[in-house]
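#structure-requests
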Amino acid sequence: MKIKSLIFLLVLTTLSFAQLKTQSNKNEIINFNQTFLKNENSGEKSKTLAFVLSLILPGLGEYYANRFDVGKYFTIAEGTLWLTLYGFDYYGNLQKENYINFAKINGGVNVSGKNEQYWAVIGSYMNIYDYNNEKLFNRQFNLTFDENTHYWFWKSNEERKKYRNLWLSSESAFNNKQFPISLIIINHIASAINAALVTKRMNENLESSIKLYPQFGFDEFNNPQIKISFLKNF
């Protein structure tokens, strides 16, 4: 019995010496243990994948990490922001259509082939003659319009102001699109970071719930043996 005990202690000493022999061997053992535990733990998730998924669609990474209870707020925010963006775009185009039709009917405008500069200008001048005369007086010859193609003439200042208000409301809606677009980008980044963090915490909880227990003893033939047991807490 004493001889077997001595052999057993010798085996333990040899194993300990082998583990401490070089730092590289130690790192290999640690890496092996970590890989082994990860393979054993099928519930562990990839932080990188969670990050990418939420970067594509906010809340998706959290769903992948089984934390959609947190991710759903990013998904709801995403849907709300896209609806807001669509609303601004729809209203801007609606008002654009309104001011173009108004200019055609009340200002005598030929609407084909006109750029954004033209639609902005005609709301500030009663007619093309006033505009061209001002540009000629200021020697800005390149800014004048062709009277045959870019003609307009408001019958009253009230008509001009009404057109101007329609144009301003359209431009304001289009400019306001920058607000939800910026928030959409922020929402994607915030959700991606959050997904990586919740995945990291989940993995840490899973790893802490698995413990390695080495057991030393003898088999039925009184031979020394080492048993390694894994205990997972629930």
